[in-house]
Amino acid sequence: MGTLAGAVVIVTGAGKGIGRAIAEELGQQGAKVVVNYSRSKEEAEAVAASLLERGAAAAVAMQADVSDAVQAKRLIDETVHLFGRLDVLVNNAGINIDRTMKNMTVEDWDKVVQTDLSGYFYTIKAAMSYMMEQKEGKIINISSFVGQMGNFGHANYSAAKAGIIGFTKTAALELARFHVTVNAICPGFIETDMYTTVPEKVREAIVKRIPLGRVGTPQEIASAVSYLVLHGDYITGQTLNINGGIYM
Ligand code: NAP
Fold it and tell me: What is the pLDDT of residues 68-115, one digit of tens each?
């Protein structure tokens, strides 16, 4: 793509955490950014306001629960209606409901799979026709190292995150002839609400398992997204691991 100046970008779940860092990274390079949120209205509006101060060509907070196919499609259609095109879709929105399988209910399973896997399909399904018509587009799916190696208490989350990796490869194959690339990023443990809600004792044990001896930062994921968008024209169907070596 070469430059983000004027490019239209959607980041799902961008009111905080990794999504916020991605929106900021792409926005400060001059993109028009849609900061999607489901519940965190104030946070998303604050992100959009700060993006405008930091050099984004445009920034709006847009509500949509991407686990709902109708709302996911509305997010994409409203973006194109507002800005005339869609260059970059970053699927980042995610939840976790951690329980051993013994205690995990069918509802726990369904809710996580619906948000963390089906939601990615819903947004891509809605976005692909615009990108195919443009004959250009970049799609980046935030998965997790947990989808590659499993994790105790993460049956629903690991299944959804592994699903993203397979889905990314299929989408990459189907969209390649339209010059639309589709890649996945698998973060390791990253310092966000999702990580800091883990009890301190567990976090201490986690850090001991990471060869580089620390958790990652949201900015480290955002930099990789920026690289794939700007310099990734010949990269598709790939899974980029940014995990401090916890999974090799
Ligand atoms: P986070 O701080 O908990 O943020 C999650 C974001 O997802 C929030 O902005 C939330 O927005 C949004 N979201 C959740 N359900 C949504 C829905 N149905 N529709 C729209 N937005 C929704 O988590 P994070 O750590 O930044 O995680 C971001 C992504 O990275 C997730 O996919 C996660 O699985 C992945 N990841 C994180 C880690 C880690 O250690 N932090 C590691 C590997 C992968 P609302 O508050 O508005 O609902």
Answer: 999 999 999 999 999 999 999 999 999 999 999 999 999 999 999 999
From 59, 2, 67, select the one nearest 27 (Cα to Cα).
59
Q: What letters, b where the CB count within 10 A reaches 16 and e where it falls short, cover 154-163?
A: bbbbbbbbbb
**157 a catalytic residue:** yes
Distance 16 CA to ligand 1 centre (A): 8
Buried b (16+ CB within 10 A) or exposed e, 102-114: eebeeebbebbbb
Strands (E), the chain: 8-11, 32-37, 58-63, 88-91, 137-142, 180-187, 239-242
What residue ranges define each of the domains in the chain, with the CATH number in brackets?
Answer: 8-242 (3.40.50.720)
Residues with CB under 6 A from ligand 1: 12-13, 15-19, 36-40, 65-67, 92-95, 115, 119, 142, 144, 187, 189-190, 192-195
Q: For residue range 196-245, list pLDDT tens digits in order.
A: 888 899 999 999 999 999 999 999 999 999 999 999 999 999 999 999 99
Ligand 1: distance of its center to the CA of 177 in Å?
Answer: 31
Q: What is the pTM of this model?
A: 0.98
Contact 156, 109 (CB under 8 A): yes
From atom 41 of ligand 1, which residue's Cα is the shortest distance away?
Answer: 190
